[in-house]
Amino acid sequence: MQLLQFIENTNLNTYAEAERAKLLSFYHYKETGNCHFTMTLITELMQKSSFNAPNASRLKDKLIKGKSKVFLAVKGTRSEFEFIPAVQQSLEQEYGAFWADTETIISDSELLDEAKFCGKRNYLDKLIMQINSSYTTNCYDACAVLMRRLFEVLLVLSYQHLGIDDEIKDVSGTGYIMLDGIVKNAKNNTTLKLSRIKKELDTFRIVGNFSAHNITYTAGKKDVDDIKLNYRVMLEELYNKAGLL
Questions:
Q1: What is the pairing mode between strands 71-73 and 81-83?
Q2: Are 40 and 57 in contact (CB under 8 A)?
Q3: Three-class HEC string of the chain
Q4: Are 154 and 238 in contact (CB under 8 A)?
Q5: Of 154, 156, 142, nearest in space to 212 by CA
Q6: Whole-angstrom Cα distance, residue 152 to residue 29?
Q7: Which tens digits make up the pLDDT trace of 20-76?
Q8: What angle do CA 67, 69, 72 make, to 5 degrees?
Q9: Average pLDDT over residues 106-112
Q10: What is the average per-residue pLDDT within 70-88?
Q11: Which fold, 114-241?
């Protein structure tokens, strides 16, 4: 979990200094497994979280000697301390689930406008947020492959909405042909009636193909940036064709 996310989830800005120190120490423990703390470490955690450096002596007294003390001194040391077991258990019960979350995707329209394109279908929302998340974390191969997948899904949805998806069915009639075949059909389909963006369809497909299948190729930021404007135009057009906007 990112530190900023933890700060937001716990409303850390609303707490007094000692409570902030306790929660940030718990965050550090969950992220690193380190259960021993020093005032130097806690001061660093406070400053990394954009809080003022505390008066170390005064804060230590609150954490170790106060009415709501949090830590016990580690035996055999003068400067290290650890959570009181009951305090740690309480923190685990209240905040431990943050680290068990396997659903939340951290994204914020870094590449695709979530306000515009999300909220139509849950599975599309997840793809869009994964694209944004992978872009902002420099995972450009993952981003390109996901962009290719979203492109393919929206083409199929457009055919379905227009009642012409039989044109892209495979020989069994139960599945769909490969993306290159769908693109060939889409560029000349008079019912789909794509705008001039159809000239870029192969580009969207190929960029994703390189990231998925080329052994020595790795995508960079420029590879995604070079297609993002046209991709966004295509996305809006296919959302309309699919009846989603």
A1: antiparallel
A2: no
A3: CCHHHHHHHHCHHHCCHHHHHHHHHHHHHHHHCCCCECHHHHHHHHHHCCCCCCCHHHHHHHHHCCCCCCEEECCCCCCCEEECHHHHHHHHHHHHHHHHCCCCCCCCCCCCCHHHHCCCCHHHHHHHHHHHHHHHCCCHHHHHHHHHHHHHHHHHHHHHHCCCHHHHECCCCCCECCHHHHHHHHHHCCCCCCCHHHHHHHHHHHHHHHHHHCCCCCCCHHHHHHHHHHHHHHHHHHHHHCCCC
A4: yes
A5: 142
A6: 43
A7: 999 999 999 999 999 999 999 999 999 999 999 999 999 999 999 878 899 999 988
A8: 140
A9: 91
A10: 92
A11: Four Helix Bundle (Hemerythrin (Met), subunit A) (1.20.120)
Residue found under tokens 């380190």: 34
Segments of the chain assigned to CATH 1.10.10: 3-100
* Furthest CA-CA distance within the chain: 81
Q: Tell me the pLDDT tens digit for each residue of 196-215.
A: 999 999 999 999 999 999 99
Q: Which CATH class is domain 3-100?
A: mainly alpha
The residue written with tokens 């902002």 in the block is 136
